[in-house]
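The aim of this short unit is practical: by the end, you should be able to scan a pair of folded records and say something sensible about each. We start with the first protein, listed as its amino acid sequence and then its structure tokens.
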Amino acid sequence: MSEVDVVIADACVPSATQRRRVAYVVSNELAKVASLLPSNLNRSLMVHSLAKAFGLLSPRPELRLLRPIPAKMSDLAIYHTREYLDYVLSHKITPHSNNGTDIHVELGLEEARFPA
């Protein structure tokens, strides 16, 4: 490890007197919409509900609650392909809409299956 790596690593670890700050992007609407994605079926809503139920979203100095800001097309295009964006923005995607068809599989919109 170089000297620079050590300085960066030390800067990332809070001291005993420092508290880590956490930001949580919170919106019931975002959680509901994200839970409709076939690869994320109900997961976002469940995580958001659990965080709320356990009081993890209560005001505290180390927690910063952020409202989501809608992304512009140029923002989305940084990560997603044009084909993907054209498809998801022009079709009503639901958990059961054409799930498993070639285009859904190709674009990664098929339902993820995880062991129970």
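Turning to the second protein, read its sequence before its tokens, just as you did above.
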Amino acid sequence: MSRVLGAVLTAGHRLRRLWWRVRRPRTFGVKVLLHPPEDPLRFLAVRHSYVDRDRWALPGGRYRPRRESPAEAGRREVAEELALAITGDLQEVTALETVTEGKRDRLTILVGTAASREVSTSLELSEARWLRTDLADVPDGAPLSRWLRIALSPPDPSPAPSSRPDPAPR
């Protein structure tokens, strides 16, 4: 049964990507960097069952801004994909504009804390695993999503460039 469902999900995703190339829609997505309770040096990584099956990624998905905020969507996606609640607020790591697969996407990456370590994957996911933030326990050669790498990268401590020109030397 899971093989048939995986084939159906893969075919559906391929059709959706074709439609995106024709229509070029504006979409909104959210990804969640989720830490287990009391362990900020670990995070939850997932592998999808229908696309990029080998790539470790962050849980998340699509949302409609008129219906929910990125944080509400992040909570919903984590609950749907992993049957996991989030404690406290989700904080924005970054928001990016991307053009991939023919669609124009606004992706918001959030960070938060899971209510527990117990995870139950939905049919969308083939695996979920708590990994170290230094990635030392990622299997050799396993690809990582770009969004996961961005979420784990330290914030840029340099100040934003000034829009004023440098004063003339005296």
